């Protein structure tokens, strides 16, 4: 279960919220979440986590116990603490649908709400969007590299916490994985769940063959046997020898798993043994320290591997574990706002992203502009919440997964490569540049007055 406590935030959010209320600054604010720049080894990113953000905002409540703890430990005013008990999110959320491909400086989520509300939820919004976007982007690279090889998430045990492992299963399924080994992901999100056996199961038995029999008799359907505990090829021959007995008992052997050594070479040898033994239908499943580069090699070498389990490199996004992302104020009380900090300047105002396609439906370029500006292309930010409530038309995970698949198919060929490619064109409109110049002028005039 994802954490719901509103104390899962940074203290400065509560500090600012109290200060806003004391100053009477409760007019409408607009905040946007975006990534400042793509990592050097990412050609694109995939938006994910919106469903969890919407659920969190819709159900956001302070409990009496939480307010009592704040009263005892953090020195907030009684008036402010009383207001927390009545707090509900009343704003609007617009966002790119989950699975949408996006690029640097493009907002994937916009919150429009009274300033104290919009500020308070900053930390958890970033936390939920950032992690799943990181994993979904990693998983999408893997799906592109894998071709017809089916992928499954094996990352729970190496994930940075229980919630991370659960949400990694969801984000990877969204981005093209066939399923996960995480049981709760099946119960919570409907992600297909599958699993094999551990080396300890084989080691606990007097013989490898007996371990195979016991496991097959227990599972009966979809049996996948781990065959590299001792001698991979010898174990494959044992599987061939046991197959008639298993068939006679009505047990269906789905595959064998390889978890160590030169997986491509072992797969070739095992495939030959299985085929000679009449087990052409038995699949070969590989795992053990795999990433998108290994998947690309399997495809390039035509390794006879049908499916792969991906663990640490997925659930931690090992090469890019974090993005330079931000949730920044863009408008308050009807006035556009802009941060001008060196290296962290923002584009002001409520924004929209328009995407253009060629005659084959392939992405050709984006335009970042102001909401309401007339620009050629498809608007990417869509309504997700109104007046604090999610929309009845919210997509299911299956819908989002289908959208993510379609998005990958719309990528220019160069961006599908694992290596850095010529950047995608995401231009800034004249209207947005003009507003930026005006905001800068007004800020300087205000500072000089």
Automatic annotation (TrEMBL):
<dbReference type="GO" id="GO:0016757">
    <property type="term" value="F:glycosyltransferase activity"/>
</dbReference>
<dbReference type="InterPro" id="IPR041619">
    <property type="entry name" value="NAPRTase_C"/>
</dbReference>
<dbReference type="GO" id="GO:0004516">
    <property type="term" value="F:nicotinate phosphoribosyltransferase activity"/>
</dbReference>
<dbReference type="InterPro" id="IPR007229">
    <property type="entry name" value="Nic_PRibTrfase-Fam"/>
</dbReference>
<feature type="domain" description="Nicotinate phosphoribosyltransferase C-terminal">
    <location>
        <begin position="378"/>
        <end position="435"/>
    </location>
</feature>
<comment type="pathway">
    <text>Cofactor biosynthesis; NAD(+) biosynthesis; nicotinate D-ribonucleotide from nicotinate: step 1/1.</text>
</comment>
<comment type="similarity">
    <text>Belongs to the NAPRTase family.</text>
</comment>
<dbReference type="InterPro" id="IPR013785">
    <property type="entry name" value="Aldolase_TIM"/>
</dbReference>
<dbReference type="InterPro" id="IPR040727">
    <property type="entry name" value="NAPRTase_N"/>
</dbReference>
<keyword id="KW-0662">Pyridine nucleotide biosynthesis</keyword>
<dbReference type="InterPro" id="IPR036068">
    <property type="entry name" value="Nicotinate_pribotase-like_C"/>
</dbReference>
<dbReference type="Pfam" id="PF04095">
    <property type="entry name" value="NAPRTase"/>
</dbReference>
<keyword id="KW-0808">Transferase</keyword>
<feature type="domain" description="Nicotinate/nicotinamide phosphoribosyltransferase">
    <location>
        <begin position="149"/>
        <end position="332"/>
    </location>
</feature>
<dbReference type="Pfam" id="PF17767">
    <property type="entry name" value="NAPRTase_N"/>
</dbReference>
<dbReference type="InterPro" id="IPR041525">
    <property type="entry name" value="N/Namide_PRibTrfase"/>
</dbReference>
<dbReference type="GO" id="GO:0034355">
    <property type="term" value="P:NAD+ biosynthetic process via the salvage pathway"/>
</dbReference>
<keyword id="KW-0328">Glycosyltransferase</keyword>
<protein>
    <recommendedName>
        <fullName>Nicotinate phosphoribosyltransferase</fullName>
        <ecNumber>6.3.4.21</ecNumber>
    </recommendedName>
</protein>
<dbReference type="InterPro" id="IPR006405">
    <property type="entry name" value="Nic_PRibTrfase_pncB"/>
</dbReference>
<comment type="function">
    <text>Catalyzes the first step in the biosynthesis of NAD from nicotinic acid, the ATP-dependent synthesis of beta-nicotinate D-ribonucleotide from nicotinate and 5-phospho-D-ribose 1-phosphate.</text>
</comment>
<feature type="domain" description="Nicotinate phosphoribosyltransferase N-terminal">
    <location>
        <begin position="7"/>
        <end position="129"/>
    </location>
</feature>
<keyword id="KW-0436">Ligase</keyword>
<keyword id="KW-0597">Phosphoprotein</keyword>
<dbReference type="GO" id="GO:0005829">
    <property type="term" value="C:cytosol"/>
</dbReference>
<dbReference type="Pfam" id="PF17956">
    <property type="entry name" value="NAPRTase_C"/>
</dbReference>
């Amino acid at each position: 279960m994802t954490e719901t406590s509103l104390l899962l935030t940074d203290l400065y959010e509560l500090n600012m919220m109290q200060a806003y209320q004391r100053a009477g600054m409760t007019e409408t604010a607009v905040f946007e979440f975006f990534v400042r720049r793509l990592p050097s080894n990412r050609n694109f990113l995939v938006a994910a986590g919106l469903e969890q953000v919407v659920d969190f905002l819709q159900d956001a409540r302070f409990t009496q116990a939480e307010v009592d703890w704040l009263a005892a430990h953090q020195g907030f005013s009684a008036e402010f603490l009383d207001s927390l008990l009545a707090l509900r999110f009343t704003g609007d959320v617009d966002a790119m649908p989950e699975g949408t491909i996006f690029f640097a400086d493009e907002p994937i989520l916009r919150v429009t709400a009274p300033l104290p509300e919009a500020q308070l939820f900053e930390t958890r919004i970033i936390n939920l969007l950032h992690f799943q976007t990181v994993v979904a982007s990693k998983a999408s690279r893997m799906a592109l590299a894998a071709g017809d090889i089916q992928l499954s998430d094996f990352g729970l045990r190496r994930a940075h916490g229980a919630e991370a492992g659960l949400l990694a299963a969801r984000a990877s399924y969204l981005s093209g994985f066939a399923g996960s080994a995480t049981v709760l992901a099946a119960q919570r999100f409907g992600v297909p769940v599958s699993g094999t056996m551990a080396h300890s199961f084989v080691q606990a038995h007097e013989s490898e063959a007996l371990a195979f029999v016991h496991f097959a008799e227990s599972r009966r359907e979809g049996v996948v046997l781990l065959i590299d505990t001792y001698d991979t090829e010898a174990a494959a021959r044992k599987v061939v020898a046991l197959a008639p007995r298993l068939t006679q008992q009505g047990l269906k052997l789905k595959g064998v798993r390889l978890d160590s050594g030169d997986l491509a070479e072992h797969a070739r040898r095992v495939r030959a043994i299985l085929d000679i033994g009449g087990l052409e239908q038995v699949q070969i499943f590989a795992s053990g320290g795999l990433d998108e580069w290994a998947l690309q090699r399997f495809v390039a070498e035509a390794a006879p591997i049908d499916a792969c389990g991906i663990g640490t490199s997925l659930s931690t996004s090992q090469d890019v574990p974090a993005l330079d992302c931000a949730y920044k104020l863009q408008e308050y009380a009807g006035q556009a706002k802009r941060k001008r900090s060196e290296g962290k300047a923002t584009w002001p105002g409520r924004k929209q992203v328009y995407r253009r396609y060629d005659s084959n439906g392939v992405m050709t370029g984006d335009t970042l502009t102001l909401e309401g500006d007339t620009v050629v292309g498809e608007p990417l930010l869509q309504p997700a919440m109104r007046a604090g409530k999610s929309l009845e038309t919210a997509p299911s995970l299956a819908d989002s997964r289908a959208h993510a698949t379609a998005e990958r198919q719309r990528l220019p060929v160069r961006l599908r490569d694992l290596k850095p490619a010529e950047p995608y064109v995401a231009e800034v409109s004249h209207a947005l540049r003009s507003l930026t110049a005006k905001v800068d002028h007004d800020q300087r005039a205000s500072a000089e007055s």
